[in-house]
Structures are given as C-alpha cells and as structure tokens.
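task queued by scheduler; priority normal; single chain, no ligands, no partner chains; default sampling; output format set to structure tokens
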Amino acid sequence: MIIIAGLGNPGAKYGDNRHNIGFMAVDAIHRRHAFSPWAKKFRAEISEGEIAGEKVLLMKPQTFMNLSGESVGDAMRFYKLGPGDIVAVHDELDLLPGKVRIKTGGGHGGHNGLKSLDAHCGKDYRRLRLGIGHPGDKDRVHGHVLGDFAKIDRIWLEPLLDAIADNADLLVKGEDGKLMNKLALATGAKEEAPSPAKADKPAKPAGQSHIRQARNNVQPKKLPETGPMAEMLKRMFGKKDD
C-alpha cells in the first residue's frame, strides 16, 4: 500500500487557501479514480482505492497543518508501512506558482506540516512540492499561505490539479521524471532559466579554448604616440606611401 497524504487545514474557511493545495490535489485524485467515499480514521479523512495495480490510501489529516505527522504516522504504523510508502503533497513557497518538484527526504524548509511528518514518520518519504510562490517579504508569508488563491491563479491551478489526477499512476509507480514532464506540459511551463549563481558567470564562447579566451580578455596596452618607439612602429606598420 502507498499513502498519498495531502497537507492542509480542515474547515471551510481554509478550503481555498494556498496552504491547502495538498488537500486540493488529493481531492482531484479522489474524483478521477475509483475510491471509496471519504471516511474518518487516524484523525483524518481517508479513502481507499487502487491505482496502477497498487492499493492506495488517500489522506487529509484533520489535525491542522502543524500536527499532520501525528495523523499520517498513525496510519503508517497501523498498516506496517515505512516512510518510503508515503507521498506528502504540499504547498511550496520556494517554487513559483505552478512549478512542481518531487524528491525523497531532505529538510522541511520551515514548513510546519513537513516538520511534523519528519518527527512522526521519519524523513525518507516522498514530497510532491506544489509551488505557490513567495510574497517577497517574510513578514507577509503567514498572510500569503493562509490567503485564498486569486482568480488569476486558476489559469495554472486547475490544469495542474487535473494533471496530477490524470497522471496519478506515475506518482504511484515512482516514475517521477515522466510525471514532472506531464505536469510541466499541463501548466505550459517552459525550460527554467539558469540559477542566479550560474547566470552571473559569462558563457564560454563557442569553439574557443580557455587559452584563447584568456588572450581575448587581455586589455591591449596603449601604444606610444611620440618618441623613438612611435617612429619605429610607424615605419614597421605604417602605410607604404607614408
């Protein structure tokens, strides 16, 4: 069995929050595939089904974001699973809106839901990181994540959620590269620009060796315009009729 746990906060007032994009993704999978009606267990809303021949438990912890790991940990131990059997779907401030990344393990990056999962499930679970963008000021982060998606966000949000549901089989089978390609196509994502560290470095001219580059970078010395050296250079390189 694999557990796909969407992270978010319970209750209607949080339903459209950016912080609840994990809930939204799991809801999309539930609508698209043959899953049982939502039930309450492990302090969560859960639903059982099958994707790509694998038993799947969808979870939406109802413990509030900061205690998500308590709920997911209960289910993991009940089914005698390990961290590698868990996929956490969550919002990611450090990715632009609509950008998606998936990885196994790593730090929590200040995300309280992941911090709780780390404490109760171990760190070696997979994380499907759904970008919501950063407001640009750390003092505005709280209001940003607990704010609702804007109408303009629907341009990328709805295609992304649909694509996650359509390609849930790739998520279950661990075909992460293919999944990322599918999600990028769905949101119209283009190839990423180089990171700032790389962008600051001048590109190496095509077809030039490092020696030639060094020569090209040498600033020519100013030639003398008067005196014996100037006269000699004039005789060597001047026009024949001079």
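post-processing summary
- Confidence is low (pLDDT under 50) at residues 191-221.
- The two ends are 91 Å apart (CA to CA).
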